[in-house]
Predict the structure.
Amino acid sequence: MGNATDHLWMHFTRMASYRDGEVPTIVRGEGAYVWDAQGRRYLDGLAGLFVVNAGHGRTELAEAAAKQAAELAFFPLWSYAHPAAIELAERIAALTPGDLNRIFFTTGGSEAVEAAWKLARAYYKRVGKPTKHKVVSRFIAYHGTSMGALSITGLPSIKSDFEPLVPGGIKVPNTNFYRAPEHGDDLEAFGRWAADEIARAIEREGPDTVAAVFLEPVQNSGGCFPPPPGYFQRVREICDEYDVLLVSDEVICSWGRLGAYFGAERYGYQPDIITTAKALTSGYSPLGAMIASDRLIEPFLAEQGMFAHGVTFGGHPVSCAVALANLDIFAREDLIGHVRSNEDAFRSTLERLSDLPIVGDIRGDGYFYGIELVKDKATRETFDDAESERLLRGFLSTALFQAGLYCRADDRGDPVVQLAPPLIAEQPQFDEMEQILRAVLTEAWQRL
Ligand SMILES: Cc1ncc(COP(=O)(O)O)c(C=O)c1O
């Protein structure tokens, strides 16, 4: 094996940090664990990157891929179809909430988000509201990296290099209740306020210019912000009032992550579009999808109508076959039910960490948690940039990994550690996470 730093350009990676060190190289996975090139074992506390929901080492998914590749390796969905895409679209439509019955396949999440924004624009042009084109999304939210998706993303640090971006990306507050002390302890009122901020943004921009609102069920970036009770119900009302599409960006939150096939189902709201990717195949092959309601495809079904958009590998036969086999596993092993019956145990195991002085907040749902780190628990004071740099980049990420836990120490918002294990994880894995985090966070505190 050659050297990882010679030719490989890693994503979102400070390459210089590996100048004198070795790039962790993962060679194998089984269940909730992966092994590196030196044979060391790690608990995969992030399911790869919120991807490997069914767990590693599923030979039946590898076999489904091989079988499909042998039978029909590739054919596009451009004016033609293949059985795996037809069957998968039908399976997904049966699982989605309400009338989200149209599946537009992509190869990943950014493309799904991009397709959703393009559909929103094209739809409103066809129904006689051609000026509706802007999108509303939340501060610190991550929605992908292609130029449109990046415009929707609310993280200035990953946008500035690429500006000017696509115009029309409007930002509103997220639902970080821990950082909203002015709202006291009234979570519901806070949720109402946060939702109404969307209405105010639409008013400010002009309702006839706004096409869609993009929200994750639980916002990932910033460290798992679940929606306050009533938040999405209020957002739905606002979207109806202003005729704006509600896009549920479930690239992370679908396929069991929150103990339901879709986050919208878990929180009881009806989106107009769901964007998904990642765990649709549990990562055994790349695939994404934009799932649209019946109403949205309607104008494109007219004579000579067409959604003038596509990508060569969208709905790749191998990926669709893998997704079907993945959904078979979900059904056979009731992975959703498994998350439901274990999520309280996951939460209470992580909550044991709240006795540590560095742990400020533990939040999330299902198998999706963020632990916010603070300098002062009482005042909730966070770390300054230099401390954050020293703590997260300089120590935590590597120390956790060296201790046998792959997870994410993230400072795109306030510093957090994020956990999203494969859905097969159970109490022994929860305990292992807690023990490693306890030891490493204790050391981090001493180093401060
Ligand atoms: C909510 C959300 N949307 C979009 C994306 C982009 O997906 P991809 O990396 O597959 O392009 C991500 C990726 O993490 C995401 O979390």
